[in-house]
Amino acid sequence: MSDLYNEPARETVTETKVQKSLFITHVCICADEAEARERIRSISSEHRQANHNCWAYRVGSLKGEEYFSDDGEPAGTAGKPILGAILRQELTNTAVVVTRYFGGIKLGVRGLIDAYGTSASAGLQAAGKVARRVRTIYEIRMPYDMAKMLDRLLDSCDTGVDFRSSQYGTAVTVRCAVPLGCSGRFEATLDEWKNSRRILDWVKLA
Questions:
Q1: What secondary structure does DSSP assign to the chain, as a single string?
Q2: Residue 44 C-beta-side C-alpha neighbours within 13 Å
Q3: In the list 15, 102, 135, 143, which could disulfide-bond 177, CB 3.0-4.6 Å?
Q4: How far apart are the first and last CA of the chain?
Q5: pTM
């Protein structure tokens, strides 16, 4: 299983007009369902005077959880097209709220599907996307003379300085976040070093 996933590069707010109706799209980066639902609630409250606040989200880096709402629009005309835009971009950790202020002209089922899908896609395009990796967090205690060897191992596992920190005392304690795809090799090496007493101990934190 790949440890790579995509999420929006930034949060955005975009506007689209369709037949005098105003569609406002909020793209939010959310770590889990609770955060996604809180952001949706906050945006819907901000636009409580709107006719509809339709939304969809997908969260989870390995197994995605997804949900959507038409918020009073005809079934299947709003939430589902918004979710479809998220899926086409292969994004996760993403919530999209499309707010509609009715302009007096009915769009019909096909028109609504197109309007919500297009508005969500425009917002996601403006947000861009960035690749992330699922990582496992470790803590390793070792003598000072092993620090450089651990650095080389971490470099080989795509774990740069942004994903590691060190504390210095009677021994060196390193906390690091290693990509899931490299965790098997990383743990096997740590076991070998511990068994040969080259390091003092290691533990998987998360």
A1: ---EEEEESS-EEEEEEETTEEEEEEEEE-SSHHHHHHHHHHHHHHTTTSSEEEEEEEE-SSS-EEEEE-TTSSTTSSHHHHHHHHHHTT--SEEEEEEEE--S---HHHHHHHHHHHHHHHHHHHH-EEEEE-EEEEEEEE-GGGHHHHHHHHHHTT--GGGEEEEESSSEEEEEEEEGGGHHHHHHHHHHHHHTTSSSEEEE--
A2: 17
A3: 135
A4: 18
A5: 0.82
